[in-house]
Design goal:
Elements lengths: L6 E5 L3 H13 L3 E5 L2 H7 L7 E5 L7 H11 L5 E5 L4 H9 L4 E4 L4 H24 L2 E4 L2 E4 L4 E4 L2 E4 L2 H12 L4 E3 H9 L4 H18 L9 E4 L3 E4 L5
Parallel strand pairs: 1-2, 1-3, 3-4, 4-5
Antiparallel strand pairs: 6-7, 7-8, 8-9, 10-12, 11-12
Bound molecules: calcium ion.
The site of calcium ion (CA) has 5 residues, from loops.
């Protein structure tokens, strides 16, 4: 469960932006701890429990990609909202693929940021509940541990990103039911636009490489033409 007053680690070196964000997040009822660079963020993070990280990418000492990677090692499911001045699509895709949960380009609207934060905390609560009900899942020669994100597929051992784990959790929860891309976007990403639709497909391609014996002929994560996907643990 999310604590009654979720605690956010805000990592941002632009002081005026940080002060404004902290003020508005606290007005929404969140507790906020502020770090002004990557080094400070990594020093603070292990000292107390957080519910979410708001992480700028361009930071002194360590950049946001590095900080996100380190935080993922300590806390595989920690929701991370990345902030950046960059607008290039590749950066966005890179951010999501290294495990950022969501991504905002500066300048952004405050209301939009607050909505993303709410959505991320909601998804965190859903994932935690679902994980408590079913901490691990096996299908075919595969198994997934939803707490550590560690998986095995035959003899292979690997780790999912939080988003990959959420996609699998969602598909498994809806086993034998069609899940549309839109549904995945709304429930796992909480965002929608062209690039994100492609992101879903990229995730599915990667998940098939992990879990399908022949990713080109999937038996567990099948496509439903022009609609979405359907998961089956024991294909006919
Ligand atoms: Ca910055």
């Amino acid at each position: 469960m999310t604590t009654p007053q979720p605690k956010i680690l805000l990592v941002e070196d632009e002081e005026s932006l940080a002060i404004g964000l902290q003020f508005n997040l606290e007005a929404e009822g969140y507790r906020v701890v502020y770090a002004r660079d990557g080094k400070e963020a990594l020093a603070i993070f292990p000292t107390q429990p957080f519910d979410l990280i708001i992480l700028d990418i361009m930071l002194p000492f360590y950049n946001g990609y590095y900080v996100a990677k380190e935080i993922r090692e300590l806390s595989p499911q920690m929701p991370i909202l990345m902030l950046t001045a960059r607008t290039k699509v590749e950066d966005k895709v890179r951010g999501l693929e290294i495990g950022a949960d969501d991504y905002m380009t500066k300048p952004f609207h405050l209301e939009e940021l607050l909505a993303r934060v709410r959505g991320m905390l909601r998804r965190k609560t859903w994932y935690r509940k679902s994980m408590d009900a079913q901490p691990s899942f096996s299908f075919g020669a595969n198994s997934i541990n939803f707490a550590t994100l560690e998986c095995s597929a035959g003899k292979n051992r690997f780790k999912l990103t939080p988003h990959e784990a959420m996609v699998m959790k969602y598909l498994i929860e809806k086993e034998d039911h069609i899940v549309s891309r839109k549904e995945l976007l709304e429930n796992v990403w909480n965002i929608s636009s062209d690039i994100e639709t492609r992101t879903v497909d990229n995730f599915i391609v990667r998940l098939r490489k992990y879990f399908e014996i022949n990713p080109k002929k999937p038996v567990h994560i099948k496509s439903v033409r022009s609609v979405g996907y359907i998961f089956s643990s024991s294909p006919a």
